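Example 239, ligand S-adenosylmethionine.
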Amino acid sequence: MQMKELNPFLKSLLGWDLNPAQIQAFDWYEKELLVWNERFNLTAIRNPEGIRSKHFLDSITCALVMNGKRKGSLIDIGTGAGFPGIPLKILLPQIRLTLVESIGKKVDFCKHVINRLELEGTTVIQGRAEELGQDKSHREQYDWAVARAVANLNTLSEYLLPLVKVGGVMIAQKGEAGPAEAQMASNAFKLLGGHLKIIRKVELPGIADDRYLIAVDKVAVTPDIYPRRTGLPAKKPLQ
Ligand code: SAM
């Protein structure tokens, strides 16, 4: 699949497609990812086809559970080389984007992409979700908190829900275990002020694996004790 061949798929999925400048931005991002991957281990997917379907398209599917909104604040936790946050920002330029990643080289790559593509209204933070969740300037400040391939939902909900304002949504991109994880995490959602909104199955060209979007509404303020100190949400996930 060539980059411009993403368009028919996007049109059927979202009802709109990419303009030439957006296609150019994805082209440049793909090339840069391939170049940086030769020096640093940014992502396991190392071929153009995989980057287009497993990184770009897959990231963009988050828009399916964003209720057609094209504005608002979005934080991407454990973004790695920018997924899903940067493709979403290229697709929806009006969102205010915050990328969070604990590993310095990945942060450097994200900053490089943001600067080169002039993605305004974007901040990249080297840090941990647990710290940001207790920081007043980030706690309950976002319309959406998203993550892909970062942690099991019990742990992930403690990373994401404290960052979401009441009325906002946590979005987790998950593989085949998504529905079972969502069921197991229902009490964690409740403890953190969340309520499961939807589990949406997503089918992508060139991807045989099941993909799911798990969207959790923030319906109540998160109690002060969450997130617990760094490492604890992963070591002792909420049950
Ligand atoms: N989301 C990207 C993707 O889908 O390609 C990267 C996925 S990678 C498997 C998981 C990333 O999450 C790693 O780069 C790791 O450093 C980061 N990470 C894990 N736990 C984190 C935390 N508590 N706070 C911030 N980053 C975290």
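Summary: The CA atoms of residues 119 and 138 lie 20 Å apart.
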